[in-house]
Structure formats: C-alpha cells, structure tokens
C-alpha cells in the first residue's frame, strides 16, 4: 500500500466492530476519515448502550481472526495483556444428538468479551492520525446531489440537543447495524428498494457470568469450551460454557423458535442442570455468580438485497448488520463483517489502478455473493429445522436449504458417531466460514457421504428426482458459490 494516493474524505457511521474495521481500511485510501457513533465510548473495557447484545459471547472464527490480524497486527497480544486466555491445548467438548467429540484444541486462539475486543481495536483506531472520532452524535439523514444519484454527506445531531450539523464526504458508509434507517432514506430519494429476505426465527439467549475462585484456576487451564448442542426434534436448549478475560466464565443458554431461556437466576441454573450432561452444572456450582442472567431476543433475521437495485447512489456503501444479520449462536457476525471489509479493501486497491464507474454498486454485489450469501444459507439450513421458525422470501425463493439441512446432519452424524474427525472438522470449518461450501458440497464429497447409508441413499434419490439433473448440475442450482 506504499504507493497509494490518498485523496478525499470518508464518513463511517456506527462505531462497533464493522465500523472500526471499515475506518481502518478507509484510512489507507482517504486523507480524512470521520467515524461517528451515538455512544460515548467508555474509558475502559465495558459494555455500552449501542451494543445491547455485547454482554453475550462473541468469537471470531479462524477466517475473521486472520483478517483482523492483518488490519491490526498483534491485537491478540493486547487482549492477552488485558487478561484474555488462550485456547491452545485446552479441552473442547462438543456434544450433539449423535454423541460426543472431545479433545485438545490445536490453535492458539484468544478468548475475550466483546467489550475488551472493541476496546483494543478502538484504541488502535484512535492512534491513526487521519481518523477522527465524533461521539454522542447520531446521523439523522443523508445529503445527496439534486438528482439523488450520489450521496455527498450526512446530517447529524448531538445526543440530547436539537442542534444539527452537516458533514460532507466523497464516501459515506452505513455501519450502524440493526438500527439502520437506510432503506427509508433511499425510498425518500426515489429509489426502489427490494424487500429483504426474513427468517422469523424468534431467537432467545441468556448469558450469566461467574468468577473463578483462585483455588479453581486449574479449570481455566483445562477447559476451552463445553458445547451441548440443542436438538430441534426435542426442542432442547443449547448450552455453551467457556472462559473470557480475568478468570471469568460465561454460560449461555440458547434456542430459536420462540421458547426463550430464562433470565431468572434460579430458573437459569435449573435449565443448565437439565442439559443432557451434568458436566456444566457441576462446574458452575463451584463458581461465584457475578451477574444475573441477561437475555437478548431476536425476533427475525434479515438479508437485504441492495445489490439487486437497478440504481444505486454513488458515494454510498452499507456493511455489517445494516446489510444482513445472522443467528448469534454460529459466531459468524463479526467474521462476515471482517470478510466484507477485506473485500472492500481488495476492491479499493483495484480501483487505484483501474477506476470504473458505479464502484459502490459493484462492492455491494461482491459482498452479497462472497460474504453474505454463504453465511445466510448456512443459517437457514440450521434454523429452519426448529419448530416455530419460518422463512419469508423477499425477491427470490431460497434454494437447497431442505437438502442442505439433511445433508449437514448426515455429515455431523458420521463425524460424531463414527469419530470421523476429517468430516467433523470440515463440518465446523464450513459453518465457521473458514472453508467454502464447496468443500462439503462438491459432487464427489456429496456422493461419498450419501451412498454410505440408507438415509443418505434416499436423500440422493430424492434430490435427483426433484431436479431431474445430474448431481453436479443439481448442486450448482442449489448451493451458493
């Protein structure tokens, strides 16, 4: 990036992980970057009002970690300095309806709360000289050219005051998350905005934190995570136990479909005790609760299709949760945001040598194709198995998800029941977006898995009958690239 010619000004509104990463990338291409957020950022690692789900577990998958390291080299060392533990060689215990897979974790991943991760990245951002932070200000509108063909800036208002200010820019990025007003603003400018896809998942999760007493420190050295996967058929909760910084454990209960885990302390502990194994409850009874259980609910997941619009204003981008949100249990949200920012970085580099019109629209199409669609498809394949979860297509039907659900369950069954660690690793590699869908959904792999059991043979016969095409062509029609 040494030969990059910086010019112009960029504005990013929304100072969470997506906004912070976006500001970092834009600082390499623009002379000035203004990052705007509604919150006053804390003076130490702490939850904040603008991220109400911040108390709950957050993780990077391997791909998200790699991209973050490229943007903020050595960030994990700072997490460790703030008390975050490593996963290396600690025990991972994964239990599902087919059995248990357990063993030592082979990578040096760092475990953290969202608050400490945001703190580390935000402190890095503050040190970049051409990035300026404007806090306690809300973007209340966009400025555009007279014909609305390009966005030229934003109008903001300070929290608790009526005074409005205008900031002009060459590029405006909406990273404001679930509170985004972009659809309404585009419609006010006369744009036809496609209806989003919606998965009415009625997701609920509750998290409680515990202090690990000094005499039980060995627990933090033994365990990385205990994950008891919920079963759609039985409608049971998923339970996940792990550690974050400073000898703190966190316990999560989760399920979609409208039956929410409790936030009352006694009821919460009772549900933990009713998980299929007593392992977690036996550990928790020795720890010291430092919070009541905190709940968070997601009525529906959505995927916008801004990339399908015939017209899109120049000078405007949208990233992160303002574009699409995912089921938090899969830990994909921050990784998808990192992938989106990485794609933006690549396309900004290419534009330096080959500037073309409608750059922003091309970025949105690339993000939808390469980042959003695979994660969304995997979310749907998993969540639509649960009673009470419904899908509402926006512009086009969702293909292949019924097959995907049954096939992924066969992969999980083979990987778990027969201790096929290669398949088990591929299952989680794809679900964590570290590997492409093609790794599991190529014709050779699909044929090998399905022909190995009567259930699989029936699924293969149903697939070929439905599509009346050779397997390879049927997969191309169903599975995102």
Number of helices: 16
> C-alpha Rg, in Å?
23 Å
Number of E-state strands = 19
Helix content: 25-40%
**Percent of residues in beta strands:** 15-25%
**What is the averaged pLDDT score?**
95
- The termini sit apart by 30 Å
* Assembly type: single chain
Class from secondary-structure proportions: alpha/beta
Name the overall outline: globular
Pick out the low-confidence regions: none
- Largest sheet report: 8 strands, mixed
Gist of the model:
The protein has 481 residues and is an alpha/beta fold.
Question: What does this protein structure show overall?
Answer:
The chain is α/β, with parallel strands linked by helices and 481 residues long. Helix content is 37%, strand content 21%. The protein contains 16 helices and 19 strands. It has helices at residues 17-26, 62-71, 75-81, 114-126, 182-188, 217-222, 265-273, 279-284, 333-353, 359-383, 401-417, 421-431, 438-441, 443-450, 454-467, 471-478; strands at 9-13, 32-36, 91-96, 99-104, 131-134, 137-144, 151-158, 164-168, 171-174, 197-200, 203-211, 223-228, 238-244, 248-255, 288-289, 294-298, 301-303, 316-318, 390-392. Strands 3, 4, 11, 12, 13, 14, 15 and 16 form an eight-stranded mixed sheet that branches. The protein has a five-stranded parallel sheet with strand order 5-2-1-9-18. β3 and β4 (99-104) form a beta hairpin. The chain is globular. The model has no long low-confidence stretch (mean pLDDT 95).
What features would you highlight for this structure?
37% helix, 19 strands, 21% strand, alpha/beta, 8-stranded mixed sheet, 5-stranded parallel sheet, 481 residues
